[in-house]
Amino acid sequence: MAAILGLRVQRAERGRVDGLVTPAEWMANPFGSIHGGVLVSIADTITGLAAQTLTETGGQYRILNLSIDYLRSPDAPGPDIRAHAEVVRAGRRLATIEARLTGDDGTVYFRAHANAQLHAATSD
Hints:
CATH class: Alpha Beta
Structural class: alpha+beta
Helix content: 10-25%
Number of helices: 2
Strand content: 35-45%
Distance between the termini: 28 Å
Low-confidence stretches: none
Radius of gyration: 15 Å
CATH topology: Thiol Ester Dehydrase, Chain A
């Protein structure tokens, strides 16, 4: 999904992922801004990547729920926008992740909240 969205990971470390997305014309709604479905796909992808940073080799994760607050709509096509996700709480089986999408000028386009289920690697 990251490839379809053009999400380019800039930094990834345990519990945190930063990336860039360049809004393309295909992402636009009839009003010339990014369609809400594309925005939620960005939120799902960036929170999933943050969850993945918590898994060990062979481990898996599953996003259990995702909520998003649409604050503004970035233009499509338009300049790069920044996607950021950070784990705010992680236990052995569950993690809570917050994400946001912002412009270079600090404009916040969305805030998202996700819970992820973490699965340890299984030995076959």
